[in-house]
Design a protein that fits this description.
The complex is a heterodimer of chains A (334) and B (487). Chain A is α/β, with parallel strands linked by helices and 334 residues long. Chain A has helices at residues 15-21, 29-38, 44-54, 61-73, 86-97, 119-126, 147-159, 171-175, 179-192, 209-212, 215-227, 246-263, 278-292, 309-322, and strands at 75-78, 111-115, 132-136, 164-168, 202-206, 232-234, 268-270, 304-306. The relative contact order of chain A is 0.15. Classes of the chains: A alpha/beta (334), B alpha/beta (487).
């Protein structure tokens, strides 16, 4: 349904290849605009209805146990406060490795997510536990700084040991139609994610969907970030309301599904902000399962940006194994 | 970047809704003059189409029973319901609506057991829409003088409803009739009488005066006796075009007013600029909602040729995620076919379709295991269909979609209108002006734009040509139950 047809050559599996496949599209502002505005529209009422219907799935017993453990493994345990301290981050990192100290069968979270200056602290505690360190960068959360400052922010975090960089796009540029600026900035940040040994920190691209407002914009931003080589597309910073919603995530999951169909390449999705209960998390997993497909049901391809969600998952997990629901006093604050 | 091989399938565990909430009696009588009485015909059994389990034995109303019911309705009309002020009638209707909400779970479970439709639909669509219908027409009861059709009721209405939406069709018939001051004798379909009989209990619970609502059960003979009874002033029927024709013949030359809501073969038209993911959702909802047992189902997909392959690919992928099985499982999308007879008809037309498209297209259904007992048919589509095929012309009334293509809006209109029916149509495009252009040219009672199968009590519904006549719902729906200002 696009007026501009998609390049159909599947990339061999690197972001650079995807970027090459879309070289014609990203050549100029005009061609990029033509492509993004040629993507099929999103009908708001229909998208919200579909998300609501998926939300009525009833996930019980074995399916619920499976979903809870999967959700724990997908959590990017996050603290992004002005009042964060080294002590707070150490405690959070310890929790990420052993979310339920009383139960060794409880899986670890995917990552801890902190500001750049606290990366080294998190790295020190997490070591090679397998829990990743994710850092927000590029003048998070507003993204209002010069490109040089943003790139320095990224390099600093990567040098300090970040495995993953969560960048914000320039929403001002996006909303004023300067798509190429947004694209080139993502490409530059991706370059800045490169380590001296040639490996990359994984790049998550935050749209701040609460500021983009329309689902058409969310779909366009998704393609823009994927074409620029982002490893993950992420809904929100958590600092703007509304943050992650089911329909926004639906549109993003459709985008990564379609992108794989067009290029053979998978991109991950991370809803962040506002997901607090197990019930909500399971609704997201159902949506991943039925919209993008089973391949995305893995911490490598789907994450939850959350802080309070983890404890609810732990409480529900304990209830499933013991049959009793213990109060929040039985789970660590951080 | 290949998918991690360790990712496991997310299998949904069974999540059955409890049956404990319903109490199905071993046998049911007829509901006449406010109480349950024995029928004098030969009682029959109603079965659960998902399991073929016999649910209950139901009385058959013979001519004498029909006569008794019509006389009870006449008495109630002349003495109680007709003279009652509209605002008093409204109180009863509001009370019924609230009881329907309160007993919503019971009604939904019973509907799914007797009809085979998924509990997700009976719970989230049927029952809430039923309550909404009673609330809406309760609001009209004291405002009829503003309707444009006067405020004089016709008298006694004989109503015959189908098995696809047993309770919803009952609401469409009874709510406007009662609001206007008529009394009714209603015959539910012989395969789905149970929720109508539960509704009779609700009438008792609401203290509705005896005789205002009478429910008589039975098959074709009972329906014919009701339609032929000289004591009724109005016939309202929803069902097949064949029976609709017979009814029209039967009442010709009498003073009975008639509304018929019959079959359809709706076109769901997808343009190349459509919001494609929502269009696919709309196609699925259009034809697989309620196993396709929907008179306004979007059974003909007309897709613009330039995007046909893409839409078809997405549609097939989406169909592969549909979950068929136990109607009471909360995760079921496709339930059971209502009866062995209907299943046989769907199979027959599908086999004809398979022969018709052979060489040009295919018959396709996702891999899908059908339960061993009960009546089941997988969601199916046919490609390579042309207007000349029976599968594109006849109403299948099952989960079977014919896919046709078009090149221009004019061709889409031509193909969409090339049917003896004319109940509904769907248009999918991002272009507002094209929606209006199409809506003006499509010969269908309802044209949905970027959606499908949406029912609201405030919106009139009805057909052209062989899809019947008269409108139900909204202000227009009152016309069928009022004498009009000319009288």
């Amino acid at each position: 349904m696009t007026s501009t047809s998609l390049p159909t050559t599947p990339g061999p599996g690197s972001g650079a290849a995807a970027a090459a496949a879309f070289a014609d599209v990203t050549r100029s502002d005009a061609s990029l605009r033509r492509f993004l505005h040629g993507l099929p529209g999103v009908d708001q009422v229909g998208a919200e209805a579909r998300a609501a219907t998926l939300g009525t799935r009833s996930i019980k017993t074995t399916a619920k146990a499976f979903a809870i453990d999967l959700a724990i493994r997908m959590v990017d345990l996050t603290t992004l406060e002005g009042q964060d301290t080294h002590g707070k981050v150490r405690a959070l990192a310890a929790k990420a490795m052993h979310p339920d100290p009383a139960d060794p069968s409880c899986p670890m979270t995917a990552a801890v997510c902190v500001y750049g200056d606290l990366v080294a602290t998190a790295r020190e505690v997490l070591g090679d536990s397998g829990v990743h360190v994710a850092a927000v960068a590029t003048a998070f959360p507003s993204g209002r700084a010069s490109l040089g400052v943003k790139l320095a922010d990224v390099r600093d975090a990567v040098e300090a040991g970040a495995d993953e960089i969560d960048m914000v796009i320039d929403r001002g540029a996006f909303l004023s139609g300067r798509y190429l600026d947004v694209h080139d900035e993502i490409v530059a940040v991706r370059e800045a994610c490169r380590r001296p040994d040639g490996t990359d920190a994984h790049l998550k691209v935050i749209f701040e969907t609460g500021e983009l407002q329309t689902y058409d914009n969310v779909r366009r931003a998704s393609w823009l970030a994927m074409m620029a080589g982002g490893h993950f597309i992420k809904t929100s910073t958590g600092k703007v309301q509304p943050a992650a919603t089911l329909p926004v995530t639906l549109v993003m999951l459709e985008a990564v599904r379609d992108f794989r169909d067009a290029t053979g390449q998978m991109v991950g999705v991370k809803p962040a902000g506002g997901i607090r209960s197990t019930k909500d998390a399971i609704k997201y997993l159902v949506m991943v399962n039925e919209v993008a497909g089973q391949d995305w049901l893995d911490p490598d391809w789907f994450r939850f940006g959350a802080s309070t969600l983890l404890n609810d998952l732990l409480m529900q997990r304990t209830k499933m194994t013991t049959g009793r629901y213990s109060g929040p006093d039985y789970f660590t604050l951080d | 970047m290949t998918p991690t091989p360790t990712s496991r399938a997310f299998e949904y565990a069974p999540a059955p809704e409890s049956r404990a909430v319903v109490d199905i009696k071993a046998s049911y009588g007829l509901f006449i003059d406010g109480e349950f009485v024995d029928g004098r015909g030969t009682s029959f059994k109603t079965v659960n189409p998902a399991t073929e389990e016999v649910l209950s034995e139901v009385a058959e109303a013979n001519d004498a029973d029909v006569d008794r019911a019509v006389k009870a309705a006449r008495r109630a009309h002349d003495r109680v319901w007709g003279p009652m002020p509209g605002r008093e009638r409204a109180k009863y209707l509001y009370r019924i609506a609230r009881i329907i909400q309160e007993r919503g779970r019971e009604l939904a479970v019973l509907e799914s057991i007797d009809n085979g439709k998924p509990i997700r639909e009976s719970r989230d669509v049927d029952v809430p829409t039923v309550a909404a219908h009673f609330f809406y027409y309760a609001g009209w009861a004291d405002k009829l003088e503003y309707s444009g059709y006067g405020s004089t009721p016709l008298g006694v209405a004989g109503q015959v409803i189908p098995w696809n939406f047993p309770l919803l069709m009952l609401a469409w018939k009874i709510a406007p009739a009662l609001a206007c001051g008529n009394t009714v004798v209603l015959k539910p379909a012989e395969t789905t009488p149970l929720t109508a009989l539960l509704f009779a209990e609700i009438c008792q619970q609401a203290d509705l005066p005896p005789g205002v609502v009478n429910i008589i059960t039975g098959a074709g003979d009972t329906g014919r006796a009701l339609v032929a009874h000289p004591g009724i002033d109005k016939v309202a029927f929803t069902g097949s075009t064949d029976v609709g024709r017979a009814i029209a013949r039967q009442v010709a030359g009498t003073t009975k007013k008639v509304t018929l809501e019959l079959g359809g073969k709706a076109a769901n038209i997808v343009f190349d600029d459509a919001p494609v993911d929502q269009a696919v959702e709309g196609i699925v909802n259009g034809i697989f909602f309620n196993q396709g047992h929907v008179c306004c189902a979007g059974s003909r997909l007309l897709v613009q040729e330039s995007v046909a392959d893409e839409v078809l690919e997405r549609l097939k992928r989406r169909m592969s995620t549909l979950r068929l099985g136990d109607p009471l499982d909360k995760n079921t999308d496709i339930g059971a076919i209502n009866s062995a007879e209907q299943l046989a008809k769907i199979r027959e037309l599908s086999e004809i379709g398979e022969r018709e498209v052979s060489g040009a297209g295919e018959r396709w259904a996702p891999p899908c295991e059908l339960p061993a007992t009960g009546y089941w048919f997988p969601p199916t589509l046919f490609t390579g269909v042309t207007q000349a095929h029976r599968i594109a012309r006849e109403e299948v009334f099952g989960p079977v979609l014919s896919v046709l293509t078009f090149r221009t809006p004019a061709e889409a209109v031509e193909k969409a209108n090339n049917t003896p029916y004319g109940l509904s149509a769907g248009v999918w495009t991002d272009k507002g002006s094209l929606i209006l252009h199409m809506a003006n040219r499509l010969r269908a009672g309802v044209v949905w734009a970027n959606t499908f199968n949406k029912f609201d009590p405030t919106s009139p519904f009805g057909g052209y040509q062989e899809s019947g006549y008269g409108r139900e719902g909204g202000r227009h729906g009152l016309e069928a139950y009022l004498k009009g200002t000319q009288a």
